[in-house]
Amino acid sequence: MKFDVTSLGEIICRLSPPGNERLSRCEELKRQIGGAELNVVSALSNMGLRSAIITKIPNNRLGVFVKNSIRSFGVSDDLLIYDNSSNARLGLYYSESGAAPRKPCVIYDREHSSFCSLTLEDINPEIYSASKIFHTTGITLALAPEIRENTIEIIKEFSKTKKTLISFDVNFRANLWNEDEARKTITEILPYVDIFFCSQETAKLTFGKTGNVEQILKSFADEYNIKIVASTKRDAITPKVHSFTSYIYDSTNKAFYTEKPYENIDVIDRIGSGDAYIAGVLYGLLTHDFDCMKALQYGNAFSVLKNTIPGDILCSDISEINSIISAHNGGHTSEMDR
Amino acid sequence: MKFDVTSLGEIICRLSPPGNERLSRCEELKRQIGGAELNVVSALSNMGLRSAIITKIPNNRLGVFVKNSIRSFGVSDDLLIYDNSSNARLGLYYSESGAAPRKPCVIYDREHSSFCSLTLEDINPEIYSASKIFHTTGITLALAPEIRENTIEIIKEFSKTKKTLISFDVNFRANLWNEDEARKTITEILPYVDIFFCSQETAKLTFGKTGNVEQILKSFADEYNIKIVASTKRDAITPKVHSFTSYIYDSTNKAFYTEKPYENIDVIDRIGSGDAYIAGVLYGLLTHDFDCMKALQYGNAFSVLKNTIPGDILCSDISEINSIISAHNGGHTSEMDR
Amino acid sequence: MKFDVTSLGEIICRLSPPGNERLSRCEELKRQIGGAELNVVSALSNMGLRSAIITKIPNNRLGVFVKNSIRSFGVSDDLLIYDNSSNARLGLYYSESGAAPRKPCVIYDREHSSFCSLTLEDINPEIYSASKIFHTTGITLALAPEIRENTIEIIKEFSKTKKTLISFDVNFRANLWNEDEARKTITEILPYVDIFFCSQETAKLTFGKTGNVEQILKSFADEYNIKIVASTKRDAITPKVHSFTSYIYDSTNKAFYTEKPYENIDVIDRIGSGDAYIAGVLYGLLTHDFDCMKALQYGNAFSVLKNTIPGDILCSDISEINSIISAHNGGHTSEMDR
Amino acid sequence: MKFDVTSLGEIICRLSPPGNERLSRCEELKRQIGGAELNVVSALSNMGLRSAIITKIPNNRLGVFVKNSIRSFGVSDDLLIYDNSSNARLGLYYSESGAAPRKPCVIYDREHSSFCSLTLEDINPEIYSASKIFHTTGITLALAPEIRENTIEIIKEFSKTKKTLISFDVNFRANLWNEDEARKTITEILPYVDIFFCSQETAKLTFGKTGNVEQILKSFADEYNIKIVASTKRDAITPKVHSFTSYIYDSTNKAFYTEKPYENIDVIDRIGSGDAYIAGVLYGLLTHDFDCMKALQYGNAFSVLKNTIPGDILCSDISEINSIISAHNGGHTSEMDR
Amino acid sequence: MKFDVTSLGEIICRLSPPGNERLSRCEELKRQIGGAELNVVSALSNMGLRSAIITKIPNNRLGVFVKNSIRSFGVSDDLLIYDNSSNARLGLYYSESGAAPRKPCVIYDREHSSFCSLTLEDINPEIYSASKIFHTTGITLALAPEIRENTIEIIKEFSKTKKTLISFDVNFRANLWNEDEARKTITEILPYVDIFFCSQETAKLTFGKTGNVEQILKSFADEYNIKIVASTKRDAITPKVHSFTSYIYDSTNKAFYTEKPYENIDVIDRIGSGDAYIAGVLYGLLTHDFDCMKALQYGNAFSVLKNTIPGDILCSDISEINSIISAHNGGHTSEMDR
Amino acid sequence: MKFDVTSLGEIICRLSPPGNERLSRCEELKRQIGGAELNVVSALSNMGLRSAIITKIPNNRLGVFVKNSIRSFGVSDDLLIYDNSSNARLGLYYSESGAAPRKPCVIYDREHSSFCSLTLEDINPEIYSASKIFHTTGITLALAPEIRENTIEIIKEFSKTKKTLISFDVNFRANLWNEDEARKTITEILPYVDIFFCSQETAKLTFGKTGNVEQILKSFADEYNIKIVASTKRDAITPKVHSFTSYIYDSTNKAFYTEKPYENIDVIDRIGSGDAYIAGVLYGLLTHDFDCMKALQYGNAFSVLKNTIPGDILCSDISEINSIISAHNGGHTSEMDR
Predict the structure, then answer these.
(1) Residue pair C55/C27 in contact by the 8 Å Cβ criterion
(2) Strands (E), chain F
(3) Mind listing the pLDDT tens digit for each residue in C231-280?
(4) How far apart are CA C56 and CA C5, in angstroms?
(5) Beta carbons of C28 and A30 less than 8 Å apart
(6) CB distance C309–F270 less than 8 Å?
(7) What is the dihedral of CA B37, B39, B44, B46, to 10 degrees?
(8) β-pairing, A241-250 with A255-258?
(9) What is the Cα–Cα distance from B181 to E62, expressed in whole angstroms?
(10) How large is the angle between the packed helices F36-46 and F273-287, nearest 10 degrees?
């Protein structure tokens, strides 16, 4: 297998004012790239796994910025598709930090992007058998009708090989579609899914689940024959202080996992911490023979650490992750790394 | 009425080092404009009301900076008076942030400014009947003898129309005058005042008031026949964390208002939050038919939000304010605006 | 008349890396606003005339940035139309400076913007009789079919009043439309045009004009009964050094004007210098009783000065302009303004 | 005496990314100078005492940066020694801030620096009798064998005069030497030491001390006939919030001192706060006739304040220090210095 | 062949003050990576060829910065060797721009770096047959005796395969070695070299060549049986304005090539322009079947363009290069890319 | 003698926007210190001479900024006088760069500064005999009547010792006084002056001199018995390109000196280049036994180099100066210092 994880999703440009400045005023913006699916594979490559992303970007200097950025994270640029059309565009979003009681804010400008013009013909079929895990999210399904259909088709192609696990994160966004559309579409693909990420709130509101978190996760696993179902629990004390843990249900051995929350996380940039969680879970599964407790520990540590790092992407390495897990579990720790 | 609120006061240039840097060291300074009276009308215009400021500025590129800045907030530049003299100057102050236990610090350099040369002849008398509310502060009275006399005269002119309410904020500054001067001057104008802002500390030390906050506010209202008296309560836990609420006494229906404090405010920049409070109170009065509970809620929300925004001015809009009030009152709120 | 000049056009956000950095690499971007039509009215308001722009912008924080920016230049926000739809977007472009032999570069991302959804119903008809001059450009015509039709209609409405002069700049952009479309559309509106700006290159390639510049300008005036026809001559020695002058034909007194070029202009930012030229011509006409030599001198000085100022907008004042004209004409000049 | 305090140590260049950025990614670095021994004398000169440092720096523009920087703090450049060799180098270190649960991080690149080539011949012997206190640390001893031997010799030279007190801070760094080396070397110089700083952890692990902090400090004093022994107690709640106090044993009057800790310190930059403590203790001793309670109060205030200031150096003045001590002891304090 | 070009050389960190600031004063430094050999392969990968670099870097966050940076250029990180030793260090240099008559300045701090500890055992022998061209420079030979010996060995290994061309740039640096050492070492490897780069000045001073440039280049080719010999001609009018061309001698068909110089180059950053020249020559040879005129044109365009781009690396793409060549040869060109 | 040169003058704070930004718009300002007299002594101390400045500054954090800044240049802070009054202020000026045809611009805000309150009683009389040269300028005389009188008194005090040479630069500023005042005041002090700096333009307009430059300089020397009279010749081709040379008349040996101009100077910051010239002349005189040709060469090189350095102060060292003189005189020079 050439790649540990391949994802499919839009890469978007993020523009954000420094510090606590406001989008309605600030002339200086920081440009970075992100996107739920890119965030997952970037974190994995930064940790040393091999990953790639199927996406489509403009064939101009903005596309070069994207290409060079993902290469810097170690994500392969082999699967990039270039849009040579005259209306090629790179989707973008603007983000502003919060400070209690002011909430963080995101404004999207991602319609009509090159990604939405991706077709099945753009994809080399060898891709479908080149990865241990294929990951995508509800955002990709929600962007536009054509990309939705194509995504479902791509999921099926990866699934056909029987050698690739399908990972899917619901990541429900009310600004992209409504709950009915989401449920209808996602339940269509759930039979193909092996690893499933869904928040409790979405499980209840979108999928009508009831009961406690264990019951909810188990219910997904049972209904759709999913191997692993995971859900995070973030508590936003203020925009700058969170606590975090998560839950995993492993249907193979019918086990349910959690750990005590990380408390008093200094939230520098919350965006992408959900995606980092997924990366951590996949990292734990791939490197520890699908041990779900390890997956949960890595997921939590990846996510928590991401909150302390500016930008969408978890810029770190595995030794830092391991030291955070160790400290969380009471291991000896110094005040500073020298 | 052309304007909802007109104020009179000095616009000063603020120079501040970034982040936690020190005034005694830092070469990079951020320039913004402020001033207690400008801060009030700027917040009001940002919220959609029409406002103006009577002031005098140098007729050079520094004056252009001031003019363009107030225009950007939506404050009318119609009432600006330009100083063509060779010693025209723009007053300024330097400000440094705090970090516990280091206190924030402000150094003023505002003497001999163009504002102090403002004369009654500079003012078009049509101004006096063009505004629903006229607002000024004790700082304007304290700057210099001539501006003090002129200010009192201007207050009387606005008052004469019987259509303009007079709003006054004591804003006592020991570096500008002493308590005796302040009391003597302010008690001279209080008979013209309809809406009065005074801290409890100043009420006690400068005006010799005693009793609890309700008694103090009522005492001003009774003694000088003031319609509305308001006082804020800030608790500076550390330079970066405050709590805040306020009190209003409405003499018309003899009612006293307060609400539970906002807690754990992330203080990014505390300067101007008192002025934002006044803007919020005036906003509530003007848009909600002089409902003092609304005025208090807006006052508190304006002030609290200002603390989270760099600079003197409340850069926001009314929908953000409303969502903060709603969240404070237990309304449903998401972690992030998307 | 409420306004000296009203324009119609899209306001776009400009993102540019600092100094000589590259769009394909740089994380720090400067955000400013611009647009050919806004650039004209902004320069005029900075010089003290009253101007406004008819445009449509998103009703979010990006729209607030636009609103506050044009207010800071002194352009009225009265004619702004707000787009409340969920797919409201602010068009944008990316720009990179040049350094010989590297050329400057611009990448547009302005399709599907809120401006293109502007309808005639959005416009208060009182606007049509509130301005001495109405100005727009070929860019507005080229953006999309609907806005093209509406623009033609708006030109006719302004023209109907007989009190408003119509100013039009061809500003041909090959990335927006082709020469046939441009010629067909523009010849349709030329009968309504009083002041016409067209480069010699476009006159030849798009309109099939021949002869020297005087013959070309006269030919437009004669054919379409245009009062004033103007054309600029820029010589880009390197991306950082230009020379510049222009030509005006005044059909009323059949006179042709030019002046010796400005040489060795330090080009800090070339974008918007053509729009500044138009502003200068209109300024000269409006303030000097349609004296075309004055118009040419102001046009040249506005344009040349714009090249020395970062951003699309001519940020200056009339005394600086006058001193540049005076120095160009051999008047005494010091090395530095003190 | 020409100087109040003279120290011996390496001046190193510090490179740090802004805010919460990462060393593995950030292109923008802030350059400052530091070094345990420089930090002590810089704080003292900023407070008005006269100080100098014996060190060796490259005779190039990097050396000029060092020279000018220490002069700006008021530290004398008289004792600087310039390295004219072709392999002169300025040691440096990279530092990254922490955000819970991410730890701060420091990477050293200080081997083979010019300082390590300092010889006894480089030093003018008049220095040895020109200072009230001579201070150095275990870091200087640990850098290299030659500098270790020379440092011991220099300590003896200062000690010989009988007029200069010897101050020594263990400052154990596991990345420079091991505990055996440290104990062996330091016990060799302890007979010359008058003022001794050692953390409890190092006292136990390196020197095998047992008992409570009072017993440990007293044990050093008794064993080596040391006048004053001090130890700090930092509690790192998170990388951004610390509490702090310290302990001093005065063997002359056999007294033990401490005070209640400073709580909720906003840690902007923790580096150098231990050195600031030493500066505070020496300041208190020198200016208050060796009153150890004063020394402890100054030590704590210096250290606590340093945490709130970016960079290694305590950039402050004595009036700010006094106001922090006063506030800690319950004195009246305002929210802001105006 | 896996790679088009593989190089061997030290990657160093470059620290430079912004704009025209001075190394002796400026606190803000920009960090980038460079190195003569890296610069060559980075330019090639940016143009779409496949390249790699054999080097050794610290296994810490500074090494991650290097790894991610070269990945962003598209240079493979497969051949990176990580130094886990406790004294691993990344060499660096400081650079300051010039402004006439102030000269640019570079200060090196690269001794004892991890690269110098590279051994033949660190290298996977498969590398030797994986590249069409192997490139290195005299800098690598000059760094230290061990790396010199190893480099000669590595050249021989690549040469043994008979499938890899050896490219060598003298790049004489008087601060690293003297002319005798250089001549002695380089003449030892010249028999293995196929493509040779040497300045006329070095040819004369170091190798004792005489005659005109054609005679000099031919003399190297004849004496050592070198296929292609190239030499650049830079004329530094001022630090900010250069002209540039080059000469190539092709021994296969005994032809000598040059073209008219590029004039009036805006020099933003001169460093790395010599390395970009080499990249251009290799690009032309590899993509145009060893056509030396193409190689010369690409070499000149690469080099000239590099001067306009901040940093060591030619950040560009092949279409920009082609448009510069076309404009230089009189092709039609617009003032701006839109 | 403790100092080589002592000056008397106001230290002012300079605020300037970055690059080509405008004072009427830019929020980011760079703070530096300057002042004609400080610029002279700072350049001298940077070159290794011992210097001091008599001035008065506020006793607050702004004063600390001044104190630390002059210390960083090596100027002694021994003669600083601190203003403890409540209206202490630091004078300042705003400066904006030019770009042809836009002129550079300076706005002063220096009235009522602490310096103007300097009294003779503030000065320790030992100062008067502690310096080889005393230097001041017409700016100091022009600031206010009191400081004018005191300055004249101070000149006389220095002169009385017979051991100190008096250096005086006319530096006529029309915004501070008029030509009549200037002539009247300066002719009063010329009998005490040994080294006199005056531009030809001022010589003609203010002092009514006629003839060529040699005649003018000689005329001053003869009339007032001045040892050395110097005058600079700057030719501002554009704000970014100047040429420069100067003339010196040495009355002792009745010789007149000049040299060929420096051409094509890249003017990064022109402010302070006149003061740097004076520093160079004094440096040449003091270090080369009053050889006026040396003085002229140093003066020219100091001045020319200052133009290439941001800020008022010549931040350089004597080896750089010597290399510029050598290159100007045709000495061998490389393109870059490595």
Answers:
(1) no
(2) 3-8, 12-16, 28-34, 51-58, 80-83, 92-96, 105-109, 131-137, 165-169, 195-197, 228-238, 241-250, 255-258, 262-266
(3) 999 999 999 999 999 999 999 999 999 999 999 999 999 999 999 999 99
(4) 18
(5) yes
(6) no
(7) 150
(8) antiparallel
(9) 63
(10) 50
Q: Is the pLDDT of residue E333 over 80?
A: no
From F22, F100, F236, residue closest to C309, measured CB to CB: F22
Contacts of E47 (CB under 8 A, 6+ apart): E279, E283, E316, E317, E318, E321
- d(CA A284, CA A195) in angstroms, rounded, equals 13
Q: Which helix (H) or strand (E) holds F325?
A: helix F318-328
Paired sense of beta strands D105-109 and E105-109, if any: unpaired
Q: Which residue has the tokens 């807006």?
A: B298
Q: Share the mean pLDDT of chain A.
A: 97
Selected residue of A14, A22, A102 to mutate for chain B interface (largest B Cβ count, 10 A): A102
- Interval F205-233: pLDDT, tens: 999 999 999 999 999 999 999 999 999 99
Contact C177, C209 (CB under 8 A): no
Strands B80-83, C241-250: pairing kind: unpaired
Interior angle at CA F236, CA F231 and CA F237, nearest 5: 140
Q: Provide DSSP, C200-243.
A: HHHHHHTT---S-HHHHHHHHHHHHT-SEEEEEEEEEEETTEEE
**E297-314 b/e with 16+ CB inside 10 Å = b?**
bbbbbbbbbbbbbbbbbb
Rg, Å, chain E Cα set: 19
pLDDT of residue D90: 98
pLDDT digits (tens, 9 = 90+) for F102-124: 999 999 999 999 999 999 999 99
Neighbours of chain A (3+ CB pairs under 8 A): B, C, D, E
Instruction: Tell me how far apart the alpha carbons of residues E151 and E134 are, in angstroms, rounded to a whole number.
Output: 11
Minimal Cβ distance to D101: which of A19, A324, A336: A324
CA distance A1 to chain B (A): 38
pLDDT at residue number D335? 87
Q: Which residues pair with A33 in a beta bridge?
A: A13
Of E264, E309, E316, the CB nearest to C238: E264
| Per-residue pLDDT at F337 exceeds 90 | no
CA distance B241 to C213: 68
Question: What are B113-131's pLDDT values in tens digits?
Answer: 999 999 999 999 999 999 9
User: What pLDDT is recorded for position D333?
Assistant: 77
- Residue A91: closest CA among A173, A9, A8, A12: A12
Nearest residue in chain F measured CA to CA from D75? F71
Whether F24 and chain B come into contact, CB under 8 Å, resolves to yes
Nearest to E304 by CA among E252, E333, E267, E256: E267
The pLDDT of residue A338: 84
Average pLDDT over chain F, rounded to an integer: 97
pLDDT over threshold 80, residue C332 = no
Is-contact A51 A310, C-beta < 8 A?
no
> What integer pLDDT is reported at residue A1 of this predicted model?
86
Evaluate if residue B331 carries a pLDDT over 90. no
Residues 187-246 of chain C whose Cβ lies under 8 A from any Cβ of chain E: 234, 236, 238-240
Looking at residue F145, its pLDDT comes to: 96
List, in order, residues 6 or more apart from E332 with CB less than 8 Å away: none
What are chain B's partners, defined as 3 or more CB pairs within 8 angstroms?
Answer: A, C, D, F
- Please compute the mean of the pLDDT values over residues D194-210 and round it to a whole number: 97
Token digits of residue A282: 């996949």
Check: pTM over 0.95? Answer yes or no: yes
Mean pLDDT of chain D: 97
Residues of B numbered 158-197 whose beta carbons fall under 8 angstroms of chain F's beta carbons: which are they? 175
ipTM over 0.90: yes
Which three-class secondary structure state does DSSP give residue F107? strand
Tokens of E41: 């392969």
